């Protein structure tokens, strides 16, 4: 069975413009592989994959890496 592929590209051209929105689109209790393909751009967001959303893979092009920046302040970071 082929995995579901979700394309993320900030500024358009993908199904979602943020990684967080792509993760949120995956149903809780998902039982199938979902690949979130992150296109090269700068992403400034706080993304979290919950335990009830297994089988999610974040994929990027190693020759043209996206820039991922955590936007939370240290006092509000979750471990």
TrEMBL record:
Pathways per UniProt: Glycan metabolism; pectin degradation; 2-dehydro-3-deoxy-D-gluconate from pectin: step 1/5
Single Gene Ontology BP annotation: pectin catabolic process
Keyword Hydrolase: yes
Residue ranges constituting the Pectinesterase catalytic domain according to the UniProt record: 7-65
GO molecular function: pectinesterase activity
Listed InterPro entries: Pectin_lyas_fold, Pectin_lyase_fold/virulence, Pectinesterase_cat
Broad EC category: hydrolase
Entry EC no(s): 3.1.1.11
Keywords: Aspartyl esterase, Hydrolase
Keyword Hydrolase: yes
Annotated family: Belongs to the pectinesterase family.
Protein's name according to its UniProt entry: pectinesterase
Phylogenetic placement of the source organism: Eukaryota, Viridiplantae, Streptophyta, Embryophyta, Tracheophyta
